[in-house]
Predict the structure.
Amino acid sequence: MLGAFDYVRARSVEEACRLLAERDDAVILAGGTDLLVEVRNGLREPKLVIDVKAIDELARLDPSDEEWMIGAAVPLNRLAEHRAIRESVPALADAALSIGTYQLRNRATLVGNLCNASPAADAAPVLLTLDAKLSVAGPKDFRTIPIAEFFTGVKRTCLTDGEVVTDIRIPAPPQGLKTVFFKQQRIRGHDLAVVNVAGSYDPTAKTLKVAVGSCAPTPVLLEPTEATGSTAAIAERVVELAEGATSPISDVRASAEYRRAVLPVLLRRLVDRLLSERSGA
Amino acid sequence: MAELRYVGKPVARDDAIDKVTGAARYTHDLAVPGMLHAVMVTSPHASARIVRIDTSDAEALPGVRAVLTGDGLSYRVGLYMVDKRILARGVVRYHGEPVVGIAADTIDIARAACRLVKVDYEPLEPVLDPRDALKEESPLVHPDLETYEHAKGVFFPEPKTNIAHHQRVRKGDFDTAFASADVTLTAKFYNPPVQHVPMETHATIVQTLPGDRAEIWSSSQSPYTVRHLLSVCFGLPHANIRVHVPYVGGGFGGKAGLHLEPLAYVLSKASGGRPIKIVATREEEFNTLPSRQGLHSTVEIGTDKSGRIVALKATYVWDAGAYADYGVNVGRAAAYSGGGPYVIPNCWIDSYVVYTNKIFGTAYRGFGHLEVLWGIERAIDMMARKLDMDPVEFRRLNLLREGETTITGEAFTAGHGSPVECLDAAAKAIEWGTPSEPASKPYKVRGKGIAMLHKAPAMPTYTSCAVVIKLDEDGAADVLVSGVDYGQGTYTVLKQIAAEELRIPIEKAHVTWECDTAFSPYDWQTVASRFAYMGGNAIIEAAADCLRQIRDVAGQAFDVPPDKIVCEDGVAFVDGDPDRRIPYAKLALGYTFENGNSIGGPIIGHGRFIATGLTHLDPETGQGLPAQYWTYGAHAVEVEVDTQTGEIEVLDIATVVDAGKVLNPKLCDGQVVGGVVQGLGSALWEEFRFDESGRFLNPAFVDYKIPTAKDIPRNTQRILLENPQPGGPYGARGVAEHPMISVPGAIGNALHDALGIEFTTLPLNYERILLRILEQGDRG
Amino acid sequence: MTHEIVLTVNGQTERATVPASMTLLELLREPLHLTGTKEGCGIGECGACTVLLDGAAVTACLVLAVEADGCDVQTIEGEANDGQLSTLQQAFIDAGAAQCGFCTPGMILSARALLDRSPNPTDEEIVEAIAGNLCRCTGYEAIIAAVRRAADRIGGEGSDG
């Protein structure tokens, strides 16, 4: 038994928000792959677990013309196997597939990965480069949080009591957008990131966005760069920006020294992959 | 010898059907009526004095049936060194040591009760580095070491030190030879502690019964050793203890000896004889149950100008952890084989098994050998470079061969197999001498490496085993053994031998799956790649015993002497007159004539085997005969390294083992491939991480990474040589441990080939590789 | 705090009263006595408890029993049909893919889910499907071969069973 909580299968977002606000120590259960481990390990002792998987709208995965919507209950495998996602934003599929094991991804969700707010969250860097926003339902009203404002520290977000993330919205990717995700692990099998990076390049606007994970208390979006000049020069600019924006630490997974050494390598490879085929490069 | 019908054939595993259907029942799966569940409170400190334990709230929790602390338990347990308490008493000696045991109606109640236990500790300065532990000013992990029982004449604890055992090997005159050597090398190496990681964690059920009896189910490699050690510990007659071993989900040495059984025993006593089940959590498997101990080695080698080794000295300092019940034997084995498979005329080895405040060590597949050969095989490569010799040539020049002696004075004969053939086969397998193909990216490089391996079963000089064969009404044979098949496939091999020797169709040979000390005959422990050898010999003898009885009865039936009876295909017939025949089915329980008269009786054969000719090693010189047989082999690898991230991939790995005789190629294959991947774990990823206070940082799969299906080599070659072993069943030797032994050494050597860097510390993880590359770049 | 649930396990309807915090793994192993599903770590890292939940491979240690209310669950005990081994099970035997056997049920269910969604998988897909199932004995090669063999046989016969 995983502690002594009660369970409710919420039927609507309103119900979930209400329960979350009313009841002490209530938590949202989507995939459960982080929550149940934390409960097992005694790190959390919820009294009520509110399952949101039965709320129809949270199960929506809807890439439409203007805005793509990924519901909070969509498991990672479903997301990664979605044709439009794979074709238009392959980095998002790659990041999703780099999380945990196949079995875990049949439960774990993109929203859960973000709400857990690990500095190493694999989905975060890609979503940062895609200007994703989180739709949040609260006890009183709805709000939208740009992902760049969502993380406030290690395992901390700007969500307040009673707020539930219902989905993630991504502006429909512009024509020709290139996205890449790279992750350095300790082993090829399932692992948390030692360093993860993501980038998107819009060939029309000629802008390059890069984000870095596992190298600061939160995933970090670097200042967007204009993709002009040689690929190598752009890469060095990105590396410089990243070095200014991150502060890797040593932990059981890697030393700060190793993270500092690998980060520029991944960034150079990322920029190269994004820009090497650009016309006029 | 007539052509073999079953031995040497790729017979499928006997147990596979239970395993693919979920029908195989492991200790994890068992329940006994009235069973309670027990959980341990473990120490959060590496070293501390226990000031006070308050269990009153835990005892008051409804559903709690027994709460025990070390204070009530005066027993000590241990296999070779009797140095361990069932629950910590007075002090705790490692992070994870059991302090309180609680039995309750459900596991949830037991866990809740554990959270109610209050233990006050006074942290003490922990002893964390075994090299510091050897210093005079070091705190003592066991101040009362001299009072501990131990295997006398075999192990030599040094009172008022942290040395649980010091094994010496002295051959020739090292100092003089080294001083006059033309070329010398000194190098230091390190292996961290690692875990066995059986997929089934340790589990046991113990029920104490009226009349000082106990019945035990355990995920154990050694039912008779469990029985014996419990008998010694609690002063019970052996016959009062019955140990069952059902299917076991992996062992690799970690389930040899005694583990959770004593705690379950005392909790059963304390709860009025209720059966107690304890299942280690994965975290406890890492943190509370034993590991492979770490090793600091120093290797010194001297050669003459031609490259012949004239002297070798090795100092092994083992990080035994808090208890050395099994670790002392690892240190012993590592000494007598601690020079590698080479001719060393002047040898000096010191192997110190040193107590520290860490998780304690035990046997782990190939014990002692992966660790020491990491240093030796790296040092051999370094030495070859100093001599400007090809590492394969250097090895070939120095390998043991007929007419030479080992470092403990054992004569090397053709019956030992051929280390040189192993080397050559390994070199050929990776096209040694031909440069690697260019790497797949400009920032990647490739390299090749080779390393030798050897190991003999490390076991007492009197190690023995027995087999019983019963014939069934239908002429089939039931084989009873107490060696445990926890995945190796030994039972299938025994079945093949039984069918071969009894001359019955293989479908009619059965090895009984559950070991039970009440019915299955004695076996020491299933460790050290010895069971196919010893059990195989015993089964040949047991089958001969059955055939003698069959011939005797059939001879009477046909009124011919027993030696005129031929046995074939489950039928006994008169030589030269095959129409006068009786199927075994009609002899199995006794033969009945047409008139109803009967002769004979149920046929039961027995066979046995005991190690012969082994001697204790001389305490001062280590000279003697420690090994029933040796198995030699080699690994050769080709790797590719990403020089910017340190990521390493094994492109190709060849494993050569001189098996003597391959009894079942399919099962051998499984041992080789599985061993290689386990060796890869030790080589590239696995290590216990501790903080500066000795707390264990990675007791879960999140941060203790073992190879997955994505981490296997691109190509795995297995080459099994068959230079027969005199005395081995059909000429076979043990092969189960060897495929992992020199994987680290071969990879370390390949990394030098690829990068020009000498790696001396395991694991060779991406971080270590990259940081060394960067360090070299800074220097160069 | 307890919940009445109804689910289908290996084709049979099961009703159970479960505490909210009971895992699906506990439900299967204890009240339902389906001990073929193993616990190797309890945190979804080893795959020993893999079962199919509405056809999808999941680790039963990270699913609450109450979450499985109304679902279809397949465990290793449901893989053989009336005592007849499935092609996949037979392939595991023939390829020597089981050693100690503790990971085998989870491994087979991961492979079963793969073959159900992708009857003719590439080697890469096979590896991806089983990489979440740790095995300490075999070195995986025989397991990958077993799945390959099963896929080929099923492809040849047109159906499993």
